[in-house]
Amino acid sequence: MNRKTSRLVIIHCIICFMLIALSLPGIVTASSERRIALVIGNGSYSSSPLKNPVNDAADMATNLQRLGFTVTLKKNASHQEMEDAIREFGDQLKKGGVGLFFYAGHGVQIGGRNYLLPIGARINRDTEVKFQAVDTEIVLAEMGNAGNNLNIVILDACRDNPFGRSFRTGSRGLAIISDAPKGTLITYSTSPGKVAADGSGRNSPYTESLIRHIKTPGLPIEEVFKEVRKELGRKTGGQQVPWELSSLEGQFYFSPGKQSSPIISSATDNLSVEQRQIEAERDRLRRERELLEQQESLEEERRILEEKKKKLAVVVRPSVSIANEIRRDGRFIAYDNGTVLDSKTNLMWAAKDNGSNISWAGAKSYCENYSVGGVTGWRMPTQSELAGLYDASNPKYQACHSDDYKIYLTNLIDLSCCCPWASEAISSNAAYFHFGAGERDWGPQSGRNHRAYRALPVRNAK
Q1: Splitting the chain (462 residues) into consecutive groups of 10 residues, what average pLDDT does each group show?
Q2: Helices 205-214 and 221-235: crossing angle, nearest 10°?
Q3: Residues 117 and 248 in one domain
Q4: Which domain holds residue 132?
């Protein structure tokens, strides 16, 4: 047998192996099967709205279309819209092929059953959920009735229950679905009973990772979700760990590749070498991707640290160091910007009060909006902080009362009357401190029929 004849024989063998492998049951190639997907993203809830699910659904739909899926996309769907879409999805699956259901939004579990929350649902107690929300069993029932070979259910719906406080039997996260048609893979964005993050970017952390990995050529479906689980576990410090349940019997690849072809790799020595080269290249790319992700994570940590430094610099800038000391009275230091530092408590006080009678709400607003000498961040003092200023050994005459009326505190703080408001308030009454009697007391927040209430701003010194 000459070389040319030998080469033809090898090619003939390869073709035979391909035809045999393609005829084997239970193997789903990524490029030949019919692919149907229903994608739903709900975020515009009147209670506990979510910013990412609509983006998650839109981006997932786009990527599934690129991978050969015929996609029905629903954004902010009502109860009726969700049920109609699920029934139509089931009808499409009866024609055969791979079915994929993706949902992003709020989901709750009641009595071990999972419900997906539509937009506009009016739910005041857990007994209303089964009438106002969509049971995930409906999706599985449609898949079971269709009788197709492979179905995928992806639930990025483990955000916290928005009605949890009014629910008697509701639990955090979603429950395990124990009864699903054969040939089904069900995946949750986090572990059963746990709550997943909605995320601060365009997508939830789970969907962002999933979109990245379904595009990896030749990666089996189980490996796709394994990569997502490793990535999310690494990024969240193990706080969010995706979960899957599977009764798949064949192979499925979101993105086809040479390594996903059902050719028997031992047909010839040349094919084995090529397969090993592909696997080595894939491992190299995976390591590069992980290194890039680590670098991105470090860059994000560095960015957050720099932002914190900038915020701290803004807070520290208007400090005592830019003012000049003009006078001392024991532990108190007065500065030329109208502030007085209590070196014992490290509290910075305004050198004088507002100068006239004021209601409690008015005093609170006055303190919070007070700004003197470039120093900001003022607030209303607590009753204990005011009491800390009282000094029985240092009497001062006070003009707002009779000539012999005295108050007791440092000479560096000028009170125009006895009683500055404190921050504590109960019902229509609020706290104040009486610097004449040295007593903590309460009065009506309106401040009417009393000419002694004042506002004295304070802040924590830097």
Answers
A1: 50 47 39 86 88 94 96 96 96 94 90 88 82 91 91 81 44 57 86 62 90 93 93 83 84 76 35 61 71 76 80 51 84 93 93 92 93 84 94 82 78 91 91 91 83 91 73
A2: 140
A3: yes
A4: 13-269
- DSSP codes joined into one string, 400-443: TS-TT-EEES-TTSB-SSSEEEEEEEETTEEEEEETTTTEEEEE
Nearest Cα to Cα of residue 214 among 132, 322, 98, 343: 98
Q: In whole angstroms, how far apart are CA 17 and each of 29, 118, 268?
A: 15, 50, 11
Output the pTM of the full model: 0.50
As a whole number of angstroms, the distance between CA 317 and CA 308 comes to 14
Q: Please give the Cα distance from 334 to 348 (Å, whole number).
A: 10
If asked whether residues 237 and 362 sit together in one domain, one would say no
User: Does residue 336 share a domain with residue 209?
Assistant: no
- 305 contacts: CB under 8 Å, gap ≥ 6: none
What tens digit of pLDDT does each residue of 149-202 get? 899 999 998 655 555 543 333 444 565 565 667 889 999 887 665 666 656 688
Q: Give the count of beta carbons closer than 10 Å to the beta carbon of residue 200.
A: 9
Domain end call among 225, 247, 269 = 269
Name residue 73's beta-bridge partners: 39
Length of the chain: 462
* Residues in a beta bridge with 99: 36, 151
Residue 209 CA neighbour count, 13 Å, CB half? 27
Say if residues 32 and 250 touch (Cβ distance below 8 Å): no
The CATH number of the domain where 368 resides is what? Answer: 3.10.100
| Domain final position from 269, 297, 313 | 269
Q: Which residues contact 8 (CB under 8 A, 6 or more apart)?
A: none
> What span, in angstroms and rounded, lies between the C-alpha atoms of 130 and 126?
8
- 442 part of a folded domain: yes
Q: 64 near 39, Cβ under 8 Å? A: yes
Q: Which amino acid is at 99?
A: G
* Residue 293 belongs to a domain: no
Establish if 334 belongs to a structural domain: yes
Flag whether 78 is in a domain: yes
* 235 and 125 share one domain: yes
Whole-angstrom Cα distance, residue 341 to residue 350?
9
Rounded to a whole number of angstroms, the CA Rg of the chain reads 35
